[in-house]
Amino acid sequence: MYKETLSKDLAKFDRIGAATIEQARPVTKLGLALLFLLIVWIGATIASAGGEQRIVVIIAGIIGGYMALNIGANDVANNVGAAVGSRALTMLGALIIASIFEAMGAIVAGGDVVSTISKGIIAPEDFPSSDLFIWSMLSALLAAALWVNIATMLNAPVSTTHSIVGGVIGAGIAAVGFSVINWPKMGMIAASWIISPVMGGAIAAIFLAFIKANIIYRDDKIAGAKRWVPILVAIMAGVFSAYLVMKGLKRVWRPDGWTITAIGVAIFALTYVIVNPLIKRQAEGMENRNKSVRALFTIPLICSAALLSFAHGSNDVANAVGPLAAIVGVAESGEVAAKVEIPLWVMFIGAAGISAGLLLFGPKLIRTVGQQITKMNPMRAYCVALSAAITVIIASTLGLPVSSTHIAVGAVFGVGFYREWQTARRTHINHGRYGEAGKPKAARDADAAELSERALRRKLVRRSHLTTIAAAWVITVPASAVIAGAIFWVIQTVRGF
Q1: Is 334 left (phi over 0), alpha (psi -120 to 50) or beta?
Q2: Which residues contact 27 (CB under 8 A, 6 or more apart)?
Q3: Which of 18, 82, 128, 254 fits 381 for a cystine, CB–CB 3.0-4.6 Å?
Q4: Residue 177 gets which letter from DSSP?
Q5: What does the alpha-carbon distance between residue 136 and residue 150 come to, in Å, rounded to a whole number?
Q6: Would you state the pLDDT for residue 188?
Q7: How much helix, strand and coil, in percent to the nearest 5, is found in the chain?
Q8: Phi-psi group of 120: left, alpha or beta (phi > 0 → left; psi -120 to 50 → alpha; rest → beta)
Q9: Can you state the angle between helices 344-367 and 91-109, rounded to 10 degrees?
Q10: What's residue 23's pLDDT?
Q11: Whole-number pLDDT of residue 276
Q12: Beta strand residue intervals within 253-367, DSSP E
């Protein structure tokens, strides 16, 4: 009795200790984030030149660091969420891989020149003074960071590019007026809200349907895997090489379309030659089960997570440091330019901030994207990753301003909705095939109707996440714009310009 009581008491203490640690984690993460911003403050103070605008540059550096933290917390989940949800990667492994490749992408391929105004929404020359431009960009950057932070708290993966665009619009209108906005450009961005997720979802569903028809639903799954998995892996390698050249290296190398196509085809052929015998050797002796086939997609998924992170780091670091680089450039030169050089210390703030935000706050959105919208396995995750790369390539070729966040999340929803449709369809078919022949036709029809209704009621996509994410996407630009306008109004009131 004594031992049982003692064990129970010790177990209670263990639970209390675990609960205490769990409660302390947010405080610890917040403390580490504040420590990072303190380091940014010190770094910006040392790196910034003297002059009247030095204080503004330091403040902008801190806000840029805050924005980078939020990008890491929210946007990077799209690169590794599916891989984590499919258990191809552990959470720790995903965090390590993504943080390393995000930083590498930002530093190696982030480029040394960036547009001062995101996506050409407004023209720098429309600002009557450099001081007005600086404070409007500061307002835009802070507004975007605040909105992405709010979205992360709501478990909604949003486009950081659209957040910046909204911030620039709101600050620009508050500073100069409605005439400053390039409305046709804004219309194209608004159209991408619909195009991006729909295209991503459709492509992911098509590939999943192909895998199911040619591998999963075959009597000899291993034979199907031997034939098609090498081709699928080679397609992923070719597409991702083209994606990496087009998006990940675009700031340091801009080949023409034919060169990119040739690179993709060459990598496809080389990968197939290498992978084909490896897959066949790995498939030998495997059980004729879906689980066996899924294992063949694990390594390609890990590679895709790394490449997506590299491309994201090189491409989206501009969202964190673009307005900051603009502020630094104007503060040092006194002139507003369409493009500015990115100081090395500014680039490091973006790279380090994205990695830090991912490590501290990324798991929350990673779980949402990879586990909570719909159930993932390596084959579904493969379709999501491949769809993201293909959609970006198609959109870039057509000149459409799409969001990688919208594409990746749309692909996850596409996979889930296809599973719902396919489950209902196969349930109906199988009932017709194996139904009780001895029953009267009316009874069999009633059973079929009930079974079909039951299958339709089986939801494989969580609707609450669909509603939350869709709402967050719709209001991202206006919300960021309103916040930016309010911030600029406060600054204008205080400074009196």
Answers
A1: left
A2: none
A3: 82
A4: -
A5: 21
A6: 76
A7: 80, 0, 15
A8: left
A9: 150
A10: 46
A11: 92
A12: 339-341
Distances (CA, A) of 226 to 49, 349, 410, 488: 61, 46, 30, 60
CB 351 within 8 A of CB 315: no
Task: State the Cα–Cα distance between residues 301 and 289, nearest whole angstrom.
Answer: 20
* Alpha-carbon torsion angle 33, 37, 38, 43, nearest 10: 140
Task: Output the pLDDT for position 13.
Answer: 45
Cα gap 31→485, rounded to integer Å: 30
- Would the pTM of this model clear 0.85, i.e. be above it? no
Taking each helix axis from N to C terminus, what angle separates 298-333 and 404-434, rounded to the nearest 10 degrees? Answer: 160
Task: Give me the DSSP letters along 207-276.
Answer: HHHHHIIIIITSSSHHHHHHHHHHHHHHHHHHHHHHHIIIIISTTT----HHHHHHHHHHHHHHHHHHHH
Q: Which pair of tokens denotes residue 54?
A: 């030095």
Calculate the CA dihedral of residues 201, 204, 205, 207 and round it to 10 degrees: 160
Amino acid (1-letter code) at residue 213: A
**Spatial CB neighbours of 460, under 8 Å, sequence gap ≥ 6:** 374, 375, 416, 417, 419, 420, 423
Distance CA 240, CA 259 (A): 14
Neighbours of 403 (CB within 10 A): 27
Output the pLDDT for position 120: 63
Beta carbons of 294 and 225 less than 8 angstroms apart: no
144 contacts: CB under 8 Å, gap ≥ 6 = 67, 160, 163, 164, 166, 167, 319, 480, 484
Per-residue pLDDT, 456: 47
Distances (CA, A) of 214 to 209, 218, 222, 419: 9, 6, 11, 16
pLDDT tens track for 425-439: 776 655 555 455 455
**Strand 113-115 vs strand 339-341: parallel, antiparallel, or unpaired?**
antiparallel
CA distance 83 to 385: 9
Helix/strand/coil for 354: helix
The predicted structure's pLDDT at residue 237: 92
Q: What is residue 449's predicted lDDT score, i.e. its pLDDT?
A: 53
Q: Where are the domains of the chain?
A: 27-495
The closest alpha carbon to 251, from 111, 393, 102, 105, belongs to: 111
Instruction: Give phi and psi for 452, each to the nearest 5.
Output: -65, -40
Cα–Cα distances (Å) from 440 to 12, 429, 435, 436, in that order, read 60, 18, 11, 9
What is the per-residue pLDDT for 26?
Answer: 77
**pLDDT for residue 17:** 43
Q: Which residue ranges of the chain lie beneath pLDDT 70?
A: 1-24, 49-52, 109-120, 123-124, 248, 250-252, 318-320, 336-340, 401, 427-458, 497
